[in-house]
Specification:
The structure is a single chain. The chain is 36% helix and 25% strand. The protein is an alpha/beta fold. The protein has 3 domains: 192 residues, 3-Layer(bba) Sandwich (FAD/NAD(P)-binding domain), CATH 3.50.50; 114 residues, D-Amino Acid Oxidase, subunit A, domain 2 (D-Amino Acid Oxidase, Chain A, domain 2), CATH 3.30.9.10; 60 residues, no CATH class. Strands 1, 2, 3, 9, 10, 11, 12, 18 and 19 form a 9-stranded mixed beta sheet that branches. Strands 7-6-14-15-16-13-17 form a 7-stranded mixed beta sheet. Strands 4-8-5 form a 3-stranded antiparallel beta sheet. Helix 1 links the parallel strand 2 and strand 3. The model has no long low-confidence stretch (mean pLDDT 94).
Length: 406
């Protein structure tokens, strides 16, 4: 028998950054909000490197952050081909930071609680309640039925509830599979530079090394083919640069997760239901970062939900405003990033050598030295496109793209 709880205004599934931030925004709007998280501890296990734009965090009110959350800041990035050709970008000031994702997630949750949201940990949502084509709440694993006026799915990489809501699911062809590790030591790396390994080191994506001041680091990669663990082993033992940087390093922890790179799903709403964050593929197709896009769309979801509740109309017609506003916020940059991802995936290892040599020769790094915005990459390129080095580079990359995609 199902145990019945009183109806809530909003139920959110998942207490990751997108879910907790949406809960915070709703609570600040005076809406009773309950969040159901399947794990016993918020932020665990951590599935993300937490490499985030400082500019975007500031815009969302999350920079600076309390002590212990920011592990390092970065004003440089080094890119390597599989044979070791190097291209570097050195910026005039730090533009990204590495977060302790567990502490960051818990911080957003604490803010949401302070605003009035209620969190239920170790509470797995089994299914949606659907009546007359409306999502009316959720059913928990312990046979508790929780009715709600609006249900928000923020559970991460999953399509199970999307399919129940008849919204299809994530594009399987657009998924890459990541392995994320913590290692105990690195050698010969710049303390405030991110190391990025391209090409066959991690087909369909890239590999990364993110150092900390204490000498430890986050090391990981994602790929669209094969076993990511095998590629990680090859990176650590065979890549001409990486093997020196991680020599004698021991892996402390390992986590696996998928990343959607196909751009936001076409429809993230239906009667009584919204999808926010990774579950809606609100993720950058180039870097796989989803925190900023998820928080941005969470803000929109809270605003649209408030309007729907005020009107006492939670129909798809009313909630469709969510899709329109998210599309306006993201589509220009996502379209650019999808094309860029397609281009990057088309490059052979030999082409990677040529591309990085070209970037060094024509001063592309210097042309990018004043960049501050890296999340909205279409707008970023528009900002620097008039510089001579970038005009040359864009022409060169355009030709490569055309030859690779006749």
């Amino acid at each position: 028998m199902m145990k019945q709880e009183n109806q809530q205004n909003i139920v959110i599934i998942g207490a990751g950054p997108a879910g907790s931030y949406t809960a915070r925004r709703l609570a600040m709007l005076g809406i009773k909000t309950d969040v159901y998280e399947e794990h016993k501890e918020i932020g665990m296990p951590s599935h993300c490197a937490g490499h985030i734009s400082i500019h975007s965090l500031k815009k969302l009110g999350y920079y600076p952050l309390p002590n212990g959350i920011i592990e390092n800041t970065f004003n440089a990035a080094n890119f390597y081909s599989p044979s070791g050709v190097k291209f570097s970008i050195h910026l005039k000031k730090p533009i990204t930071c590495a977060l302790n994702r567990t502490k960051f997630d818990q911080y957003i949750t604490d803010q949401a609680k302070q605003a009035g949201a209620t969190f239920h940990v170790d509470s797995t949502v089994k299914s949606l309640q659907i009546e007359n084509n409306y999502v009316k709440g959720v059913n928990l694993q312990d046979n508790t039925a929780v009715p709600s006026k609006i249900t928000i799915d923020a559970e991460g990489i999953s399509s199970r509830l999307l399919r129940q809501a008849k919204l299809g699911g994530l594009d399987k062809n657009g998924l890459v599979y990541a392995v994320e590790t913590e290692i105990d030591q690195v050698h010969d790396v710049e303390p405030h530079a991110v190391e990025v390994y391209m090409g066959s080191s991690a087909p369909g994506f890239y590999a990364w090394l993110i150092p900390r001041p204490d000498g430890t680091a986050k090391l990981g990669l994602a790929t669209n083919k094969g076993n990511p663990q095998n590629y990680l082993k090859n990176l650590m033992t065979k890549h001409p640069i990486a093997k020196k940087q991680v020599k004698s390093a021991k892996i402390i922890t390992t986590n696996y997760h998928a990343i959607p790179l196909s751009g936001p799903i076409n429809k993230a709403y239906t009667n009584g239901f919204l999808a926010v964050g990774d579950v809606a593929s609100q993720v950058k197709p180039t870097t796989g970062g989803g925190v900023i896009f998820g928080l941005t769309c969470g803000d929109i979801a809270a605003d649209v939900a408030k309007t729907a509740l005020t009107l006492d109309d939670v129909s798809a017609k009313t909630l469709s405003t969510y899709q329109k506003r998210c599309d306006t916020a993201l589509n220009f940059d996502v379209t650019f990033m999808l094309r860029l991802r397609h281009f990057l995936n088309s490059l052979s290892d030999e082409r990677w050598n040529s591309v990085l040599h070209f970037c060094n020769r024509f001063g592309v790094g210097k042309a990018l030295s004043e960049v501050e915005e890296i999340d909205y990459q279409g707008r970023m390129i528009m900002h620097v496109a008039t510089k001579p080095a970038m005009i040359t580079a864009l022409g060169y990359f355009g030709l490569l793209y055309l030859f690779a995609n006749p």
